[in-house]
């Protein structure tokens, strides 16, 4: 399928997910994350969920990371296609941006070169590790600045599509994608 078709399909599928299902499935995702070989790393970048879009709730993953004394890094949109990265601390305050994404107001910036693992939002993904996001390109731009060794992990409520047919050279593939039912490795 084409990206625009997948965006429409999965936005509609998300409308059928209840808040209770989001909570239960997000905890199952966090439990699956425990099985991925990432626990020797130190800097973990994760998005904060847009609840209005019925995204995976990343709070269980953040709690898991903090419980293991990992550094959690949160993005903030900067400009048209870039993000800044801030260390999550007890003093971090948040404000929603124009897309309803909670973002740090200020804090300690973390360069992309330090980030070991990135948890990625997505609408869909395929069996080759390609992902479909909202189409703004923020994460592809960000991931190209990270070290080539940075682990890229998608989080999805749904299983993989067979193929996203209109990928291009600027798309960055996932290393893993975690669903409530399984872990895909690419």
Automatic annotation (TrEMBL):
Keywords: ATP-binding, Ligase, Magnesium, Metal-binding, Nucleotide-binding. Pfam families: 5-FTHF_cyc-lig. It comes from the Bacteria. It catalyses: (6S)-5-formyl-5,6,7,8-tetrahydrofolate + ATP = (6R)-5,10-methenyltetrahydrofolate + ADP + phosphate. Its EC number is 6.3.3.2. SUPFAM superfamilies: NagB/RpiA/CoA transferase-like (SSF100950). One of its GO terms (molecular function) is 5-formyltetrahydrofolate cyclo-ligase activity. InterPro entries: FTHF_cligase, FTHF_cligase-like_sf, NagB/RpiA_transferase-like. Its cofactor is Mg(2+). NCBIfam families: MTHFS_bact. Belongs to the 5-formyltetrahydrofolate cyclo-ligase family. This is 5-formyltetrahydrofolate cyclo-ligase. It comes from Flagellimonas spongiicola.
């Amino acid at each position: 399928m084409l990206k625009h078709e997948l965006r429409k399909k999965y936005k509609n599928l998300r409308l059928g997910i209840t808040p209770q299902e989001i909570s239960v499935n997000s905890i199952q995702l966090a439990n699956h994350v425990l099985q991925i070989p990432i626990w020797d790393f130190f800097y973990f970048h994760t998005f904060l969920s847009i609840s209005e879009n019925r995204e995976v709730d990343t709070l269980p993953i953040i709690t898991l990371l903090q419980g293991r004394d990992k550094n959690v890094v949160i993005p903030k949109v900067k400009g048209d296609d870039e993000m800044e990265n801030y260390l999550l601390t007890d003093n971090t305050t948040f404000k929603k941006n124009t897309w309803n994404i909670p973002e740090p107001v200020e804090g300690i910036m973390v360069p992309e070169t330090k980030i070991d693992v990135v948890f990625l939002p997505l609408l869909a993904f395929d069996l080759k590790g390609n992902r479909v996001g909202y189409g703004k390109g923020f994460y592809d731009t960000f991931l190209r600045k990270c070290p080539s060794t940075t682990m890229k992990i998608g989080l999805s409520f749904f299983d993989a599509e067979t193929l996203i047919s209109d990928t291009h050279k600027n798309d960055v593939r996932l290393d893993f994608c975690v669903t409530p039912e399984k872990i895909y490795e690419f």
